[in-house]
TrEMBL record:
Protein name (record): Dihydrolipoyl dehydrogenase family protein
EC number assigned by the record: 1.-.-.-
Domain spans labelled FAD/NAD(P)-binding: 9-314
Domain Pyridine nucleotide-disulphide oxidoreductase dimerisation: 353-458
Organism: Nonomuraea mangrovi
InterPro entries found in the cross-reference section: Class-I_Pyr_Nuc-Dis_Oxidored, FAD/NAD-bd_sf, FAD/NAD-binding_dom, FAD/NAD-linked_Rdtase_dimer_sf, Pyr_nuc-diS_OxRdtase, Pyr_nucl-diS_OxRdtase_dimer
Keyword vocabulary terms for this entry: FAD, Flavoprotein, NAD, Oxidoreductase
Family designation: Belongs to the class-I pyridine nucleotide-disulfide oxidoreductase family.
Enzyme class: oxidoreductase
Cofactor or coenzyme needed: FAD
GO MF annotation list: oxidoreductase activity
Key word DNA repair present: no
Signal peptide as annotated in the record: none
């Protein structure tokens, strides 16, 4: 085991979307940077999460759209092999050389191996041969190690060799019978994708009373209706007591508290994610707490961005935090003021924008009504049936969608917006601008949506509000 030691301005542990973006910003800020990655440069998002899941969902989405347009019909079922090939292409066949080259061309140093904190400003990197390199950071160490799936303590689960999200997004053979545990984003997206690709018997087991717990309740209800209509067995208030699978393979049996059991070919566990802090040299297992400059309180050198800080487990929010973090590290390193607006995370606390790529799509930004009331705002809400908008009716027969705004009555600005419906994802950014920039409603009134687009729902919402 040889030991080498290198000095560098900034060390980033983890080359997912968050870590890569910190590297990009600190180098742009005139600092040297080393990035440590022990698997694939590009992280979970590029190879196992956002990209493959959206690639698997796109055919289902388009098939649903086509079925709503009179005169159009799909010429046969979805070609599953072609979809899986296209997914493989989307993840670059798990070859990260392109992203690795992006890092090295910044220029930054890419070190392959497992990083851990070994002291103040010190990072030890152990490569696959056991060689240890010690990196000494002059200015900062940034943790960007992401998250890993939560494994619920259900008897027999580990022995039953369940699927987690990586298994679902990397699927090679779609199981005919699938049980999905969880009612969050991964469970809903992957249940719909795999059902459309051939998991004819798909059962979604949800312990609570609704789907997508952090969004407006009507969104989860509409999604559950759509899933059931497509033939997915959605069950609420379910407790799994035990799982069984023979050691030599065969079907998995999921036993429920009410005495029923369900047999399936695979069980997908999608019960949330926890920060990837195992063996990172930190005390504690929870998210790494940071201030709004992404720095760990009490330290002047340790930062954390992306899933590992638990703020919002979304790629775009991790990348945003990375931009703040990289820029603030550069400002501090050069002795420049570090309190400019761009050097603070002003977005996470307001409620991150999120698109759930199901059918219907669920798009939200800011606070839900419940969260806004809990935060003490004087709230008024308006809802609108998007099927009544001329642009929506032109998208296909029986367009079903719903929009909701949450208004801060004191300041007359939007606190939250939710759109649920087919093809609403691209409408979300207008809502993000309105919520983030706190555009007064009487100015929003002058943002005229084009006719005949679904965006006219903005006009209808404001009319319903009373403008
Ligand atoms: C199925 C699924 C679908 C998703 N879809 C979306 C979506 O559509 N849109 C969206 O915004 N978000 C989505 N997400 C969430 C998104 O994937 C994460 O928010 C995002 O990947 C977080 O980025 P990150 O850089 O913080 O961490 P990661 O992407 O997890 O990257 C962390 C990197 O650190 C490396 N690493 C960890 N520990 C060490 C160590 N000790 N030493 C060296 N390297 C280490 C890992 O190998 C990894 O490459 C999805 C998640 C899942 C599970
Ligand atoms: N399109 C997107 O933006 C997208 C897609 C996928 C994932 N993600 C991100 O990834 C993160 C992880 O997604 P996720 O779906 O795993 O987590 P989640 O937090 O969204 O949902 C977890 C679900 O599991 C349930 N659950 C938790 N423990 C359980 C237990 N012991 N038994 C039964 N059910 C249990 C919860 O009630 C909840 O329904 C999310 O925070 C999300 O932001 C985003």
């Amino acid at each position: 085991m040889t030991m080498q030691s290198t000095d560098v301005d900034v060390v980033v542990i983890g080359a997912g979307p968050a870590g890569e973006n910190v590297a990009g910003r600190v180098v742009r800020g005139g600092l040297s940077c080393a990035v440590v990655e022990d698997h694939l440069t590009g992280g979970e998002c590029s190879y196992y999460a956002c990209i493959p899941s959206k690639s698997l969902l796109r055919p289902m989405e388009l098939a649903a759209e086509v079925s709503r347009v009179p005169g159009l019909a799909l010429d046969g079922p979805i070609d599953v092999a072609a979809v899986l090939n296209s997914r493989d292409k989307a993840v670059g066949y798990l070859d990260d050389s392109g992203q690795a080259e992006w890092v090295t061309k910044l220029p930054a140093t890419l070190l392959r191996g497992r990083g851990r904190l070994a002291g103040e400003r010190l990072v030890e990197v152990k490569d696959k041969d056991g060689t240890i390199t010690t990196l000494r950071a002059r200015h900062a160490v940034v943790l960007a190690t992401g998250s890993v799936p939560v494994v619920p303590p259900i008897p027999g689960l580990a022995e039953a060799r369940p699927w987690f999200s990586r298994d679902a997004t990397s699927v090679r053979e779609v199981p005919a019978r699938l049980v999905v545990l969880g009612g969050g984003v991964v469970a809903c997206e992957m249940a719909q994708a795999l059902h459309a690709l051939g998991a004819a018997e798909t059962t979604l087991l949800v312990r609570g009373g609704g789907l997508l717990g952090r969004t407006e309740p009507f969104a989860g209800r509409m999604l559950a209706d759509s899933m059931r209509e497509a033939g997915i067995d959605v069950r609420f208030g379910v407790k799994v007591t035990r799982i069984e699978r023979a050691a030599d393979g065969g079907p998995v049996t999921v036993h429920l508290e009410d005495g029923e059991s369900i047999e399936a070919d695979e069980l997908l566990v999608a019960t949330g994610r926890r920060p990837a802090v195992d063996d990172l040299g930190l005390d504690g297992e929870g998210p790494v707490q940071v201030d709004d400059s992404m720095r760990v309180p009490g330290s002047d050198w340790l930062y954390a961005v992306g899933d590992v800080n638990g703020r919002n487990l979304l790629t775009h929010m991790g990348k945003y935090q990375a931009r703040v973090c990289g820029d603030v590290i550069a400002a501090r390193a050069h002795g420049r003021p570090d309190d400019a607006t761009g050097l603070r995370d002003l977005a996470d606390g307001k409620g991150a924008p999120q698109v759930v790529f199901t059918d219907p799509q669920v798009c939200s930004v800011g606070r839900t009504e419940q969260a806004a009331r809990a935060d003490g705002f004087d709230v008024r809400v308006v809802e609108y049936d998007m099927g009544r908008v001329a642009g929506a009716s032109l998208l296909g027969d029986g367009y079903t969608g719903r929009a909701k705004i949450v208004v801060d009555e004191e300041r007359k600005v939007l606190l939250g917006v939710t759109f649920v419906g087919p093809a609403v994802a691209e409408m979300l950014h207008a809502a993000t601008v309105a919520v983030t920039a706190e555009v007064p409603l009487d100015m929003l009134w002058h943002a005229v949506p084009s006719f005949p687009t679904v965006s006219e729902v903005w006009l209808r919402l404001l009319e319903e509000y009373g403008l």
